[in-house]
Design goal:
single chain, mainly alpha, two-stranded antiparallel sheet, about 140 residues, 3-stranded antiparallel β-sheet
Length: about 140
């Protein structure tokens, strides 16, 4: 928000506020007529930091039910598998039990996440079928 000169002037200065800016500012529940609600802003900042922290998985619930429509489920499955291989390392095959345990940290339905990733070409099974290799979304073995 502070990167926008109009919003910054409206919040911290005495700038003119047009209807569009007023509408944008109204979306911030921590900003009242008398200025920022400092305690609420602090809690919001802490929540955002928690969401970005590596321990976020320990603070928020797993996905209990994956969306049924493919167009909603596939991106979520791919994101989960991408996160798993960021942590496990994308350059080595991962045994199925290890992959399942890692996916289970994010979602209860491990099989659907793994199957989506295989069907979409992001994961491939090793020749012996005992492990999975991360191929990546561009087919190059990386997530870039």
């Amino acid at each position: 928000m502070l990167a926008s000169p109009t919003l910054r002037a409206a919040v911290v200065g005495d700038g003119e506020i047009d209807d569009r800016t007023r509408s944008a500012i109204a979306a911030f529940d921590w900003l009242g007529a008398d200025g920022p609600d400092t305690p609420l802003l602090g809690r919001t900042a802490q929540d955002l930091q928690r969401l970005q922290a590596p321990a976020a998985l320990l603070e928020f619930d797993r996905i209990a039910r994956m969306p049924a429509p493919d167009d909603q489920r596939h991106p979520l499955s791919l994101r989960i598998v991408g996160l798993v291989f960021e942590r496990l390392g994308a350059t080595r095959p991962v045994p199925e039990p290890v992959l399942n345990a890692a996916i289970a940290m994010f979602a209860e339905d491990v099989a659907i996440v793994r199957r989506d990733a295989v069907d979409l070409g992001v994961l491939e099974r090793t020749d012996d079928g005992a492990a999975y290799r991360y191929v990546g979304q561009d087919g190059s073995g990386s997530s870039a």
